[in-house]
Amino acid sequence: MPSTLHETLIEMFRERPALAAEVLTGPFGVSVPTFDQALASSSDLSAVMSTEYRADAVITFLSQGEPVHAVIVEVQLGPIEKKRRSWPAYVANLHSRLGCPVQLLIVCPGASIARQCAEPIVVSEPGLSLTALVLGPDAVPVVTDSVTARRNPELTILSALAHARTKRHRAPVLEAFLAGLDIFDQEHAELYADVVLAALPKAARAHLEVLMTTTPHRYQSDFARRYFAQGEARGEARAVLAVLEARGIDISEEARERIADCADIDQLDVWIRRAATVTKADELFA
User: Fold this and answer.
1) Is residue 253 assigned to a domain?
2) Domain identity same for 103 and 166
3) For 218-243, what is each residue's pLDDT tens digit?
4) The model's pTM
5) Is residue 214, in this structure, part of any structural domain at all?
6) 250 CB contacts (<8 Å, ≥6 apart)?
């Protein structure tokens, strides 16, 4: 079953298909034809009367409505042997469908898997092989300043995943990561923060949590303040409900929702104190 990290990395390309062009022209220096539209296309790359082939994401670049370039995006976090047999079919089938150049881009946060993905896939001898562009730790740019982070927030997320593991880059990379999160809406910013926190090793995760929770810290972003304020509110709401439940007091669905949805820490503190003495849940709100 695909992991949350796997699905989140795919979603970044689906949400903003032009990201694929930025990756090709940036880290890889690949020339992409001029286009006026980038679309996340169907990921079904099966040929008629053939085995089903389904890529993680397919990005098609259009000029005046016609495809001029396409990128198959694959996120690879684990063993690749079966995928290496499928990837040439992905490229061939999409090329047959669109009639334009097709590139295979593999996003791979792990260095050892990235090296395996970068090895050419020999289809036949002589002369027919497929070499993917692999966005592994060595290819991901080290983003350390807030201006670049806000201009390229998705690459900044990849930078945090790739480079925050090393002590040398940890602090500036995570500071830039927080700055980049301010560009996203709250839902996506929370998702990316959760995924990066879960994916980082213990030392890097602890460093990021300090940056996000230390109010005087000069790098704390607007998002970080909202993220942990909401987290604190959820904890306080759970405490209110826990006290009521421990005392055997019935809680209506309406009251439960009102408590759970409250984001006012001061109000929740009042409710926690009242929860220790009330005889009915509704008395909390008096």
Assistant:
1) yes
2) no
3) 444 556 555 556 655 666 777 788 88
4) 0.73
5) no
6) 280, 281
